[in-house]
Amino acid sequence: MQDTQFDTTVAVEAKLHGEWLPRMQVYQQQPELPRALISLGESAAKTFDPKLVELVKLRASQLNGCAFCLRMHAEEARQLGEAQHRLDLLSAWRESQVFSARERAALHWTEALTKLITGPVTAEDIVKVRAQFSDKEIVDLSATIATINAWNRIAASFHFTPEVPV
């Protein structure tokens, strides 16, 4: 009996190091999932410079530990012309001078919404985002952040494997 339990544990561990339910199968099980997230994400992101959107998606993906989304959005940011040194400094954006006041406000808001488990959005968080964004932009930014957080949770929970160039 102990050997069977060991074999089961090994099989589970093997699955956890790769996609235990491949991406396309996840989407086949719930076809509206990618459509809804893509639709919301694209609608909300229209308000902003595409580079800002990618910085927000990357920062949320860093906080959530989503390798699949990190790889994808880093590549998309580079294709948009985002400088590699800025991507390198993103996790330490507070200590870096390479991000504009608007980008810093967006990154602050991203952290506030992504890390809700550590506490609610504060008055200080609201003051910082309102200093740089209109109410409409805050709603769209919040929808963008909510969307990437949903993608992160799906990709991380099913262990989507990032494509890495050889």
Automatic annotation (TrEMBL):
One of its GO terms (molecular function) is peroxiredoxin activity. Pfam families: CMD. Residues 31-112 form the Carboxymuconolactone decarboxylase-like domain. This is Carboxymuconolactone decarboxylase family protein. It comes from Shewanella cyperi. The lineage of its organism: Bacteria, Pseudomonadati, Pseudomonadota, Gammaproteobacteria, Alteromonadales.
